[in-house]
Amino acid sequence: MFKATPNPPQPSSKSRVETQQAKKLDEAAERALDYYLNPKPTDEASGKTQTAQLFMVSPDIDTETLLANASEDLLSISAIAADLADDVDGSRRSVILAISRMADGVHLLVERAMDRLEVQAAG
């Protein structure tokens, strides 16, 4: 059966303004896609190479502050592990308690290092 509908209209020639607007939109879309899909390293403009570090400790923090924060973090790890050990049984409990005790041991080492720093600062 023959369909009595006309063929789609032929694309009309666009004006120069429409062509420029379409080009600007295409360029903007390219920039947006590149921004999200192909990000450039932040240090590229300064000539520095970007390292593969996700986190970085600020280089101007003194040793005592670093040790104090490590001490607090180790206490937190130990407390979390000890609390978690109350909720499990068997070999999992032993593993969690071992983690807690290891964190306690490292905490003692950090505290001793802090004590030595205080003695050096006083002497």
Number of strands: 0
Q: How big is the Rg?
A: 32 Å
Strand-residue proportion = under 5%
Helical element count?
A: 3
Q: What distance separates the N and C termini?
A: 105 Å
Q: What ranges have pLDDT less than 50 throughout 5 or more consecutive residues? A: none
Helix content, binned percent: 55-70%
Average of per-residue pLDDT values: 83
- Indicate the overall shape: elongated
What oligomeric state best describes the polypeptide chains here? single chain
User: Which sheet architecture does the biggest sheet show?
Assistant: none
Order of SSEs: HHH
Biased composition (Pro residues): 1-11
Region (Disordered): 1-23
Protein name: DUF3077 domain-containing protein
Pfam families: DUF6124
List keywords for this structure.
123 residues; mainly alpha; 3 helices; 63% helix
Task: Please sum up the structure shown.
This protein is mainly alpha-helical and 123 residues long. It has helices at 16-37, 63-85, 91-122. It is 63% helix and 0% strand.
What does this 3D model show about the protein?
- The chain has three helices and no strands.
- The mean pLDDT is 83.
- It is 63% helix and 0% strand.
- It has helices at residues 16-37, 63-85, 91-122.
- It has a domain at 63-122.
- It is mainly alpha-helical.
- The N and C termini lie far apart (105 Å).
Set out the fold topology:
Blueprint: H1 16-37, H2 63-85, H3 91-122
Helix pairs in contact: 2-3
